Amino acid sequence: xxxxxxxxxxxxxxxxxxxxxxxxxxxxxxxxxxxxxxxxxxxxxxxxxxxxxxxxxxxxxxxxxxxxxxxxxxxxxxxxxxxxxxxxxxxxxxxxxxxxxxxxxxxxxxxxxxxxxxxxxxxxxxxxxxxxxxxxxxxxxxxxxxxxxxxxxxxxxxxxxxxxxxxxxxxxxxxxxxxxxxxxxxxxxxxxxxxxxxxxxxxxxxxxxxxxxxxxxxxxxxxxxxxxxxxxxxxxxxxxxxxxxxxxxxxxxxxxxxxxxxxxxxxxxxxxxxxxxxxxxxxxxxxxxxxxxxxxxxxxxxxxxxxxxxxxxxxxxxxxxxxxxxxxxxxxxxxxxxxxxxxxx
Amino acid sequence: xxxxxxxxxxxxxxxxxxxxxxxxxxxxxxxxxxxxxxxxxxxxxxxxxxxxxxxxxxxxxxxxxxxxxxxxxxxxxxxxxxxxxxxxxxxxxxxxxxxxxxxxxxxxxxxxxxxxxxxxxxxxxxxxxxxxxxxxxxxxxxxxxxxxxxxxxxxxxxxxxxxxxxxxxxxxxxxxxxxxxxxxxxxxxxxxxxxxxxxxxxxxxxxxxxxxxxxxxxxxxxxxxxxxxxxxxxxxxxxxxxxxxxxxxxxxxxxxxxxxxxxxxxxxxxxxxxxxxxxxxxxxxxxxxxxxxxxxxxxxxxxxxxxxxxxxxxxxxxxxxxxxxxxxxxxxxxxxxxxxxxxxxxxxxxxxxxxxxxxxxxxxxxxxxxxxxxxxxxxx
Lengths: 345, 380
Prior knowledge:
heterodimer; A: mainly alpha; 15 helices; B: alpha/beta; Rossmann fold; six-stranded mixed sheet
């Protein structure tokens, strides 16, 4: 292994690590706020990428129907509740968000030929379709059992993951797709060349991380999320809606997931089920951060990326084994280092 | 009273009708990792004629999700509940291997659509009942090594799936390469779901091979090829017949120009010379499939399912002379009739079954194909 190869592998590890880091952050966020181990995180990666690819093929993505159907279900449940509690004035807002918005999106897509749009518009459309799935899934699957123990939330996560993977096969078929790069070509640095798409991934990941940092530090919603993460009951007493916090964290998780998918689909082929493994590697990163620390989770995810790149060179047959074995010493270290507390149930 | 008589008549009629039908239990992997193979197979069974030799054909189709346990469960269900005359399936080798015991115990013929040689070889007391339609990996890998030595390739690097398919090819290829004095200079693995193979590709390029063989199936096999081109690898690239569908061409695009692969003749049915015995039967399948699913939709995997049906079509008339469908005797007669099939041209080749060969394909079952201008071109 000479310097050149080490450099190329490092670049590869950094690119993948940046995506894992984004997913790890989303996982930590969702877990901290709602105590849900969000296994379907990876599905948003696949849905984002495949929805974009379908749009670029000039077809209506089937995820659009999913949004319309889930939106209708949410509107029916929330609307019925609002009526029962005699607060009919909340009705217009519920209907507008869950029923009118997806239908408007459908009308918009039916009116234009998505294949002819510029890439940025296609990306925005794909995100507009996939991201609302996050809060809707929270409303339907998790909100009714928001106070349940972590284990039950985890079981529900697995169920949601299996449903989304199955729907993915139905929507997009078994074969994968690639999308064109944001900017074609590569930057020649003399000793190595850097693909522009790789630069995009690194830049956008960094921007997203900084954006999240600012969001949590400065905005009132970000502070509300942090408060909920620290102490749910306390936050509720202070008038912070835990439901809103849950929906907000799922929206962010869906956004990060779908956008990661859009970012990596030009450099790799994505399938309806590739999200799971990508999400799992983000999860290893998040575990290194103990599912609480954002910086350690991001660093852990980068470590996973590098480990993967270098082990694919040295021992490609054992790559996954090496990456996932990493979790054992980390768990040992965490369980030895941290004071052991039973979760209150 | 009238109503009662009607019910009695119906009750009488139902079992009689069921007895005369030939029941086929099909299990395919329409979901899960092998879905891209299983879906065209499932589509193909929708095109199968309703009758064979005047007998109504009842097809019971189940999905096994590429899972061995489910495939065995399906096979048991076919035998116990549906009382099938023949089992067809499954799509993948591990599932097919596990189904052998069920078929042999129930003395029911089974036709697998998976490639593994171990499914039918050696033909022993259990495998007497088992046949398969796809070519052995060995037949395909000898086609590759032949082409390699004709083109002066001495050093080959291999990169394949880290599963049964990639491992099977690695072993098969290492064996036949040795016989042709071709050196395997690197043997790497990657996962179907991997997002990057940079590490493996760098190692391969560092080994300076004359050619690279990629042992993967479907669109995931495009990933190493794209990575090789990105690192401006200039040598020959070979793929296996596992990539022979239109989606692979779509995903791989211009990076796959000039790639060689062995494949069943059905892939290039229209380009076969007129005197090729396979041409007519292959074209026949392509036309039927594309009429139902659109131009360019045909894949070689669905053709394995079609060939399984063609075997039945050829064997059933002989078996019907000996016994009625639904009986033990009929299943035994069907097994014997399958073994007696000679010179039957199908979509993938010409079947010549015998007591020791339950695949029955010779070199007419494979051709070398080159990817040119985003299409498959027969290499003469």
